[in-house]
Amino acid sequence: MYCIAGFLRWNQRAYSATVTGPGRPFFNRHWHASRLQSLYQYLVDHLGYADLLDSLVLEVWRLLDQRPVQVDSIREMIGQIASCLFDPTLDMSVNKSASRLVNSLFAPTPGSKEDPGVQVYRQRLGDMGDSDLTQEAKCFANIMHDTGLASPYHAVLIRHLREHKTDDLIPDALWRQIHLNLSEENRELLRMVFGEAKPPRVFLLAGVLNLLGQPLGVGQGNNPSCQSAIGLSLWADHEADYLLQILAWAARDNEILIRFEGNEVSSKNLKLGLVTETPVDVDPVSLILIPHLDRIYGEMWRRCSERDDDAHRWINPEFYGWWVNHGFLAVTDVKTGEINDYEMRVYFFNPNNDSGQDWGQGVNCSTQGNGEIRGEASLPIAEFASRLCAFHFDTLELGDVDAVPADEIARVADMAFGSWAANDTD
Asked: How far apart are CA 205 and CA 200, in angstroms?
């Protein structure tokens, strides 16, 4: 069972891998889908449907609990689950967890319970009264809260309500985004990555709605710059107006402005940072904003490069906003690279495509079962602290530092020096 789960996890990450460079403008999902089908069939031939289905269902729920924004690979896996459940040649036992997943996409409401297709569903909506439409909407809401997924039938209902029932479906703050005039450069970029099934502005609007609804799902794994992923997640959760403002600048003007130590920093005409090529296997908001955010972060770093402490100390509060405290401690000495003493206790959020990671020494991040809300990961404090390199803290709320047991501090230091800091003990 563990080997199957490991394969499925690897496959999901491979599906999300970025393929860029000359002659390779975007990731070929159709090619991957055919390979995926072949690999599933190989497992079925050797292991049988029962073992594969159970592992596949568990893996899908584990990923959904993290509320990812990009769900193409998850939808592919749910399609495989549906194929197993509804194959008349297979004798499959009832699997309620599997049925919940399949129904979330293909039969989420009473009006779509037998997966009639969007044309038939649209006709049914026209025959429904207010009570039935309300029930349909409630079922969609329950499904989204349960899985984080939206069914194609949900879009049909929204269009129906928009055309026939109400003008109040879109918050006022999004009307600027709806009518935003994208630059030709960004229109072409969105077409290249997401195709021409819809206008570029529609893909970007969908990306905004996804991000504002599930900010913890912006995976660092596909973002070339972790700073951008952290910023998008933070602003989507705490400062949506600010996120929409800088997105409007970037999408319309090919420029964003951020203040640093009293001076405006423009993303125009700056040197490249970590992002040297346009990231294409990311969500639409990341696609537009990452290059600008990365250049500005790089410029802030250059302005701090000659200072006598880690540059994060000055950059992070200015780049991310007032949520980042101005107290700061870096475990690594900026001049010598040596590891300082561990006298600390803090928490932080670090977005990844899959937060259920193995950090070595038995340190395994948990994403469910230990009180995590969806999108969070957790670890015992000592294990978490042993993997920190730098952090911010509130200088006015230090707490009682003497209350931290000395043996816990020693344990944290031992775990660090026994892993990532092993070569910095001099």
From this structure: 9
Query: Residue 319's closest CA among 298, 344, 339?
Result: 298
| Strands 390-393 vs 257-260: parallel, antiparallel or unpaired | unpaired
Q: What is the mean pLDDT of residues 7-30?
A: 45
Q: pLDDT tens digits, residue range 137-196?
A: 999 999 999 998 999 999 999 999 988 866 667 877 788 899 999 999 999 999 999 999
Q: The pTM is what?
A: 0.70
Half-sphere exposure of 328 (CA within 13 A, CB side): 16
- Are 238 and 275 part of one and the same domain? yes
Q: Which stretches of 168-317 are assigned E, i.e. beta strand?
A: 257-260, 263-266
In this structure, are 276 and 321 located in the same domain?
A: yes
Query: Do 31 and 83 fall within a single domain?
Result: yes
How confident is the model over 62-106, as pLDDT tens digits?
889 888 887 888 898 898 888 888 877 776 676 789 999 999 999
Total number of domains constituting the chain: 2
Q: Which residues of 68-81 are buried (b: 16+ CB within 10 A; e: fewer)?
A: bbbbebbebbbebb
Residues 356 and 68: their CA atoms lie apart, in Å, by 13
Over range 228-252, report the average pLDDT: 91
Structural domain for 215, as ranges: 184-417
Return d(Cα 112, Cα 140) in angstroms, integer: 11
66: DSSP letter = T
Q: Coil, strand, or helix at residue 327?
A: strand
Token reading at 205: 């609007």
Whether residues 104 and 47 share a domain: the answer is yes
CA angle 165, 168, 172 (to 5 degrees): 155
Same domain for 161 and 265? no
What tokens were used for 422?
């092993």
Q: How many CB atoms lie within 10 A of CB 361?
A: 14
Query: What pLDDT was estimated at residue 180?
Result: 93
Is there a domain that residue 47 lies in?
yes
- Same domain, yes or no: 123 and 238: no
Residues 321 and 279 in one domain: yes
Task: Compute the chain's Rg from CA coordinates.
Answer: 24
pLDDT, one tens digit per residue, over 307-329 is 988 888 899 999 998 877 766 65
User: Between β-strands 327-330 and 263-266, what pairing exists: parallel, antiparallel or unpaired?
Assistant: unpaired
Contact between 367 and 217 (Cβ < 8 Å): no
**Residues ≥6 apart with Cβ < 8 Å to 418:** 361
My answer on whether 287 and 364 are in the same domain is yes
